[in-house]
Specification:
- The structure is a single chain.
- The chain has 142 residues and is mainly α.
- Among the domains are: 35 residues, no CATH class; 38 residues.
- 44% of the residues lie in helices and 6% in strands.
- The protein contains seven helices and four strands.
- The chain has a two-stranded antiparallel sheet. A two-stranded antiparallel ribbon has the order 3-4.
- Helix 3 crosses helix 4 and helix 6 packs antiparallel against helix 7.
- It is flat, with a radius of gyration of 20 Å.
- It starts with a helix and ends in a 7-residue tail after the last helix.
Length: 142
């Protein structure tokens, strides 16, 4: 997260893409979703401030039933068509299609990379260094 001099002086958080400043980090996080397209109405193209407000917009303006409005703005896997409510969940799912959650030793496919790491440690008794190498580990460890 990039803070501008004005944001730092005012104690705020600035969007690195458009410069808009927010007082709270979670408000900036919500704003960032507008740049990701998560709050753009795919019926009329309107940019809505939050996912909640987008769902209200779909129900009130486009007269979609509540259930349809809830799932209308989703992230869809282009490989299998499975729908996810968040971009992060879709990214985690896509790793399955890339083979990044399949055990190279026994062929077991896990739901996510963290579960693959646990599988390699607990079932195959691989040392952590080897697990990190095999899974392309780049983050913190539990």
């Amino acid at each position: 997260m990039v803070l501008t001099a004005a944001a730092i002086a005012g104690g705020g958080f600035a969007c690195a893409l458009c410069g808009r400043v927010y007082r709270r980090r979670n408000a900036l996080a919500a704003h960032r979703r507008t740049h990701e397209g998560a709050t753009t109405c795919d019926v009329c193209g309107a940019h809505i401030s939050t996912v909640h407000n987008l769902r209200q917009h779909l129900r009130m303006v486009h007269r979609l039933p509540t259930e349809e409005a809830h799932w209308h703005q989703t992230h869809v896997c282009d490989a299998c068509g499975r729908k996810y409510k968040s971009r992060d969940a879709l990214v985690a799912h896509r790793k399955r299609h890339e083979g990044r959650t399949t055990c190279h030793l026994c062929g077991t496919t896990t739901s996510n990379v963290q579960n693959l790491r646990s599988h390699l440690e607990l079932v195959h008794h691989l040392p952590r260094a080897e697990v990190r190498r095999v899974t392309g580990f780049r983050g913190g460890w539990r």
